[in-house]
Amino acid sequence: MSYSQIIKSARLRFSLLALISLFWLISGSAFQAVAVTISPAISGVEARLPEKYGEIIYQSNAAAPWKLFIIANGHRSAISGAFAANTLQAQVETYRIGEWLITHNQIELLLPEGFFGDRGGTGTLGFDKGQLDSQSLRDALAETALFVNAELLLHRNFGIGLAQIEDRELYYQARELLGSSLKPENRLSPSFRSEINYLTKLRSANLLKDVPVVIQSAFQQGRISSPKAMLTIGLSHLDDLITFLEAGEIDIAALHTTAKDYPAKQNELALFQEQVSVTVIVPRTLVSCLVNSIH
To answer: Taking the model in full, what pTM does it have?
Structure first.
C-alpha cells in the first residue's frame, strides 16, 4: 500500500483516532493522531522543505498572493502540561519547519493555537543568529521551570510576530470539557464525545475563518511586509481544516444534548478560493507515528 493510500484509508478512521488522541493529550501518554489526505499537486518553493523536518500533505491555490502555512503541532497536555510520547521531537521539528519558513519564505507572522495577546515582530534575524544546535534546541523545549514551546522560541530567536487567532471563550470552554473527561462516567457518555467533536470542529472553523482578517490587518498596518503567515495547530484539527478548505465552506451540523443545544454553523470561505494559498505541513515524527499506527 502506498503512502497516499495509507493516508486516505486512515481518514476513514478519523472519528475514532481523533477521540483517542484527545484522551491521550490529557493523560500525556501518546501523541495526537489524525487522518489527512495528501494533495497530489504540490509545487513552489515550499515544496523543497527538507524531508527530515516534515511532509507537505496538502496544498491549494499555490499561485494565490496570500500565503498561509499550517503546521500540525504536537504539544504538551492542555490539562497537565506533561509531554506525551513523541511530543518533544515533534516540537523540535515544528521549530525547524518554522525556522525554514522564516528564512526561505520571509514569514513574519505566527498564529499559534491557544495563544492570547499580541507580541510584535522585532525584525527577522539572520539564520546564523537564530539557529540553535540540536541539543540546545531540545534542552530549551524540554524546560519545565518556565513554559516554552516552539512558537515562543521562534519569536525569541527570530523576532517573528505572534498574534492571537483563537477565541478565548471557546478555547476555555473546550479545555474545561476536556478536563471533565478525567471522570470515567464522562468518557463513556455519547453526548460528551459529541460535544468534544462539535467544539473541535467549531474551533477549527473559527481559526480558519479569522486567518484572512488577521493577515490583512497586519499587512495593512505595516507589521508584515507581505501577506504571509504560519498557523500552528494540534494534529486533531487537520481533518476538519482540510475538509472545510476542500468544500470551500464551513458546514457544522447543530448538536442537541440533554444539557445544552449547539447551533449549526455555516460560512463561505471565498477568500481561500480566490486569494489565499494554503500549505499544510506535518512534522516528520508525527507522519511516521501515523503511518506506523495504520500498519
So the answer is: 0.80
Whether 105 and 67 have beta carbons less than 8 Å apart is answered as: yes
Q: ∠ CA(204), CA(209), CA(214), 5° rounding?
A: 115
Q: Which three cell numbers stand for residue 68?
A: 498561509
In one letter, which amino acid is 112?
P
- pLDDT tens for the 295 residues of the chain, in order: 333 444 444 443 343 344 334 433 433 333 333 444 444 444 454 448 999 999 999 999 888 999 999 999 876 554 455 555 678 899 999 999 999 999 899 999 999 988 766 666 655 444 445 578 889 888 888 877 777 889 999 998 998 999 989 888 998 888 888 777 666 666 667 788 889 899 999 999 999 999 999 999 999 999 999 999 999 998 889 999 999 999 999 999 999 987 789 999 999 998 888 899 999 999 998 888 766 655 5
Give me the residue spans of the domains in the chain.
3-294
- Coil, helix or strand for 79? coil
